[in-house]
Amino acid sequence: MIRAFFTALAILLCFALFESSILSNIQLLPAVPDFLLICSLYFSLNNGRTFGAVGGFCSGIFLDFLTAAPFGMHSLVRTIIGYSGGWFLKILNLEGVFIPALLGFSATVLKAFLLWLVSLFFPVSVAHYDILSVVFLCELAMNTIISPILFRFLRIFDGSLLFGQESVA
After folding, report:
1. Which of 42, 43, 80, 94 is most buried, most CB within 10 Å of its CB?
2. Tens digit of pLDDT for each residue in 63-98?
3. What's the rounded Cα separation, in Å, for the pair 70 and 118?
4. Count of H helices and E strands in the chain?
5. 149 lies in a domain?
């Protein structure tokens, strides 16, 4: 369990640094694909709600430290998404292309909804997506396309990421 947790943390930290230092500085991209969201979703789909919530929280903390967003906002949103993904533990077949793409699409829409919901309580400090904006639609498309590729890449680490499974009930 400790090995799985630290392996997931290392993967999340590498993607957080890649996302915030390299991808965010590419001027041609209107939006940055959310690798951390997809990784947290993958961890929760394979290890359950608890691991998904912890992985989502850790990915959110990494982003909270690396961005100028209000502290805790990313952690809250990603914890909810990680926990929600854990409800589908071992139910979905993640081997193909369609289901991971659909999951990436759904997680991005859920993230936009949760950010909008948080912005209702903190309208001045929390920026939310306009769902018809180019930025949101580009991020949605990129996350949908990248999800099957990233799921396949993360399967390389399955031996060190899997630990005792939760019950599905």
Report:
1. 43
2. 888 887 788 889 999 999 999 999 988 788 888 899
3. 11
4. 7, 0
5. yes
Q: Which two tokens stand for residue 28?
A: 């041609």
- Give residue-wise pLDDT tens across range 124-145: 777 777 778 888 999 999 999 9
Handedness of CA 23, 49, 136, 154 (dihedral sign): positive
C-alpha span between 167 and 89 (Å, rounded): 9
Total domain count, the chain: 1
Is residue 104 a part of any domain in this protein? Answer: yes
What radius of gyration, in Å, describes the C-alpha atoms of the chain? 15
- Tell me the three-class secondary structure of 77-134, residue by residue: HHHHHHHHHHHHCCCCCCCCCHHHHHHHHHHHHHHHHHHHHHHHHCCCCCCCCCCCCH
Domain of 85: which CATH number?
1.10.1760
Residues 77, 113 contacting (CB under 8 angstroms): no
DSSP state of 163: -
pTM summary value: 0.87
Taking the C-alpha atoms of residue 119 and residue 95, their distance in angstroms, rounded to an integer, is: 36
CA distance linking residue 169 with residue 160, whole number of Å:
25
Which domain does 145 fall in, by range?
A: 2-161
> Identity (one letter) of the amino acid at 75?
S
Residue 25 located in a structural domain: yes
